Amino acid sequence: MPAPGSPEARDLCALFHHSFAASAGEDEARDVAALVEKLIAEDPDARRLFVATQDGTAKAAIVFSLMRFGDDPAEAWLLSPVAVAPDAQGQGIATALIRYGLDALRGAGARMAVTYGDPGFYGRVGFVPVSVDHVPPPFRLSQPDGWQAQALEKPAPWPLPGPARCAAAFDDPALW
């Protein structure tokens, strides 16, 4: 992860801004870029960033941040946000990058990954919808159908105890 305020951090925030401005509008783009800036400032051991580049330019990026459930010491990681430059969308870059990130987490001993988004997209990389009773989110979900998880070990580690704790950048009920 780049250092907060560095040119690399600014470039990543710009990638997220540009990606979300093209798909969701300026307000969401500004919010997501600010979220990424906060994630960059978090404890480096509690976040993982994966970037796909082409000709030295970042074309896609994903961020995983550490989550904890109750007193369970096992690692779970929240995948959010995901960005792909508009000129690189539809080429499978995000799918490949997410698979790469999940494999890296699995190799490091993580038990599971969760995300909150489009089941059609995340289902392509192995996420399945889960009940909030099995994998409690940090806050009440505005769209419970988007809550998904992927076991990175067998058997699946859920049901998990609550409460869930997330990175400080996500500690805002409005994001859920």
Which structural traits does this protein have?
176 residues; alpha+beta; 4 helices; globular
- Largest sheet composition: 7 strands, mixed
Helix/strand structural class = alpha+beta
The rough form would be described as globular
What low-confidence regions span 5 or more consecutive residues with pLDDT below 50?
A: none
User: In percent, how much strand structure appears in the residues?
Assistant: 25-35%
Query: Helicity range of the residues?
Result: 25-40%
Q: In angstroms, what separates the terminal alpha carbons?
A: 24 Å
Rg measurement, Å:
15 Å
Question: What does this protein structure show overall?
Answer:
A hairpin with a 2-residue loop joins β2 and β3 (72-84). The longest helix has 18 residues, at 7-24. The protein has four helices and seven strands. The protein is globular and about 40 Å long. The chain is α+β, with helices and mostly antiparallel strands and 176 residues long. The two termini are 24 Å apart.
